[in-house]
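Fold it.
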Amino acid sequence: MSKLFFILPIFLLFIACEKVVNTGNLPIYSKYPTQLNTEWEYNTIVMFEYYDSTGQFDSSSVMDLGNTICKISRINDSITNFKKLILFEEFDVATPDNIHRMWYINSDSGFYAIAYSNPGTSNFIIPKQIFSSPESFKQLIKSIGVAPAFYFSLPNSNQLSDSIQFYTYPRKVLAYPLKIGSRWIELIEPFYRERFIRKQEIININGIEYNCYKVEADWDFDISFNDYIDLSRGLIKREIISDSLRIISQNSPEPEGYFKLTSISELVRIRKP
């Protein structure tokens, strides 16, 4: 039986309980910016910091994953019975033909992810404490991307697909109004995660200051996942941090050392129509 059969009653109930706002007329600073043809560009780096026997860092290296474009292609899109959807398209500058798509609704209560296609990897990688190589962490970062909600494919999906997949329940990416002390459930599958805000921060990138809410994650994985959101400009920075990872050789299960991984995606430019 089609998953859409289960999704539609839930979503229609969701629509009936609150007014859906036409995102082309959203007041500035109150909701995530979703003006048609807005385009963001981000650069992502991954830093590896290695511990010595005393627990101090003794060496480090940086991997540049290149730049990613995220843009709003439509603000009044329709998929089957879903109306007034905002379409975000995302692609790496190095591979512009591999376009990831995510559909959202900006409602009175929050910013919801409804559906997606062609996610960043064929299967979402459940975060683990042991990454077998820098390439495996790079794959995880690519699967998360830089859109307001990160992608994941269905558990039984083995290939990239342009077919549209609907979330069983709308994912509440942001809860409105954004404010210190807010906490909400973002998703319950393929794992449970809550997001929360406990402070605002001024982020300075290339001499430009952004007034951001730091949106943190509460989940079962020992990985810090933080988004810095400026409501006038969108996602400014995304950081993913996993500490005290073990270095394992192919010949022995005993760790040869420990290291810390930090991924940072920062806004390079934003183009508004």
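Confidence is low (pLDDT under 50) at residues 1-28, 121-130, 153-160.
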